[in-house]
Amino acid sequence: MPETDRDLQARLFACEEALKVETSRRLSAEVTLRETRQNFKKALQALPVIIYATDQDGSLIFYNREFERVSGYAADDLQNGPGLLDLLLREDEGLCLVNDVTCRKWKIETKDGREKVVVWSEESSAVPLAGWRSWKIGLDITELETVREEVKILQGLLPICANCKQIRDAKGVWTSLETYIAEQSEADFTHGICPACLAKLYPKTDSDT
Predict the structure, then answer these.
(1) Which of 72, 124, 160, 207 has the fewest Cβ atoms surrounding its Cβ within 10 A?
(2) 63 assigned to some structural domain
(3) Are 195 and 186 a contacting pair, CB within 8 Å?
(4) How far from the centroid of its chain's Cα atoms is residue 123's Cα?
């Protein structure tokens, strides 16, 4: 038998209620998703490693506090400088391994002109994120590289004078052993006299004792 107006109204009411439930469910899901994204970004902000992301045009769309600290650029600088990444990433040092992970080592130039060394790991393929064409994790290894260079300086053959025992540095300048070691390390010297030298310099003192 044909549907009556009452039947049609009942069906329409049921559809409206179902639409309300679905709309409410989707709005709730959107709120949850938005909160999840906000919490995710808060977590990235707090991490002690550099994180930044770019969009399809290569523009910087996310960076954390460690990025600002290492680069020296504040939020206003980063937002108003579309070509900042090109200035920051100054020299590609090539591939390197960090804990068995292949990374790229870059020399960067900070806002105040200092040079730092950062290793970057591209995470876009392993963990794709919506809206982020590319995102990377970076670690500032400047201090480690400085220590390595200092260790290299103290390794290998050192040209030393056979007579006065002065050391010739990388610039060809001859300097005392104490001065050379003090300049190339954090060692400090105290001066005393060994027993053999004491006997030569002060024979009477030696015999008296």
Answers:
(1) 207
(2) yes
(3) no
(4) 15
SS3 label, residue 123: coil
Q: What is the pLDDT of residue 155?
A: 67
Residue 118 phi/psi, 5-degree rounding, is -130, 135
Burial of 120 (0-12, 13-18, 19+ CB in 10 A): buried
Mean local confidence (pLDDT), 46-68 = 89
Same domain, 139 and 191: no
* The pair of three-digit structure tokens given for residue 103, joined into one six-digit string: 């990374």
Instruction: Give residue 105's identity as a one-letter amino acid code.
Output: K
Q: Establish if 163 belongs to a structural domain.
A: yes
pTM (2 decimals)?
Answer: 0.59
For residues 89-111, b (16+ Cβ closer than 10 Å) or e, as one string?
eeeeeeeeeeeeeebbbbebbbe
The total number of structural domains that make up the chain: 3
